[in-house]
Amino acid sequence: MEPMTTTDPSPRRYRCNACGNLTRFDVTSTVRTRAYHHYAVSGHLSIEDAEVLAEEIEDVSCRWCGNGSAVVELEAGDEAIDTSDQRPPEPRAD
């Protein structure tokens, strides 16, 4: 089975207020889709024309520092933030 690709009409952007991360997050979500399944005579499945009907974001945590409570969703106007200088923080000495 080939991976399904969808186009999210409104991608979400996040920021971790604990460490400043703008680029790496673990997102747990439930997605409901409608898609065209095309089976070849050999049995190979191709999934095409996938449409997202509903999506629920259940949890977002920062990949850099592991914090989940400090992650906020950015507003539409905040998307122009320059992330070119984003580097992960030094590893924690736990």
Q: Please tell me the overall pLDDT.
A: 83
Strand order of the largest sheet: 1-4
Number of strands: 4
Order of helices and strands: EEEE
Task: Kindly state the percentage of residues in helix.
Answer: under 10%
Which structural class fits the helix and strand makeup?
mainly beta
Radius of gyration: 18 Å
- Gross morphology is elongated
How does the major sheet shape up?
2 strands, antiparallel
Number of helices: 0
What share of residues are in beta strands? 35-45%
Terminal CA distance reads 41 Å
Low-confidence stretches: none
General description of the model:
With 94 residues, the chain is mostly beta strands. Helix content is 0%, strand content 41%. The chain has strands spanning 14-16, 25-39, 45-62, 71-73. The strands form 2 sheets. The protein has a two-stranded antiparallel sheet with strand order 1-4. It is elongated. The model has no long low-confidence stretch (mean pLDDT 83).
Question: How would the blueprint of this fold be written?
Answer:
Blueprint: E1 14-16, E2 25-39, E3 45-62, E4 71-73
Antiparallel strand pairs: 1-4, 2-3
